[in-house]
Amino acid sequence: MQEQASRATSYTTLASGPDFRHEIEIKRSRFITVLRRADTEEAARDLVAGLRREFHDARHHCSAIILGPDRDIQRSSDDGEPSGTAGVPMLEALTKRETTPGAADLSDVSAVVVRYFGGILLGAGGLVRAYSESVSSALSLVPLVRRSRLRICSAEVPHAAAGRLENDLRAAGFVMADTSYSAQYTVLRVAVSDNAGAIADAADRLQLLTSGSVTLRPEGTEWVDVPFP
């Protein structure tokens, strides 16, 4: 439902894959940051719950989430740290992260910082800096993708020709959405900008690659991962 009502046409998120982990140490305290791509609050809560079980002897499991193409769901938790010293700076690290110069559009990210207390008090300012640095340093290393609302165009291709045609389309710079299959055909799905010119360019390229034997059929729009520059 968020996607249908969204005003945004693109945003940045984590590349699909396992949770990303990064650890720093500050005055003998360990700060273990775990980042997960999550598009629901339930997925974000699952991350916290799983890390509480894994790091059951840690003192704090602080968290921050930012969800939706319009980044309209934002939550944070200090989990026992002094109010405003953990969750809020973690959330600010997410919301203010510039994925391209001048553009802060990161979303669908759940961040948890597990802290093992090292015996030295950091003070309120020290905690704010530590939790902010933990998330920021992890974000500087994690792979990102652009998630864009694109027009899907499909083409029914004989199974034997599908692999080579898909490779040719990728080599030509086209973004491919999920492939599906029927008894007779492989259905390739090309994701292009939602305008007549982009659709026509894709149709022309497909005609060229298949000597006019395959037709491109425009369908609806979907959110699709696009490699980050």
Overview of the structural elements:
This protein has 229 residues and is of the alpha+beta class. The protein has two domains: 2-142, Ribosomal Protein S5, domain 2, CATH 3.30.230.30; 148-227, Alpha-Beta Plaits (2-Layer Sandwich), CATH 3.30.70.240. The protein is built from six helices and eleven strands. The chain has helices at residues 2-5, 41-54, 87-95, 123-139, 159-171, 196-209; strands at residues 10-14, 20-26, 29-37, 60-67, 73-77, 109-116, 144-158, 175-176, 180-181, 185-192, 217-227. Strands 1, 7, 8, 9, 10 and 11 form a six-stranded antiparallel β-sheet that branches. A five-stranded antiparallel β-sheet has the order 2-3-6-4-5, sandwiched between helices. Helix 3 packs parallel to helix 4. The mean pLDDT is 94.
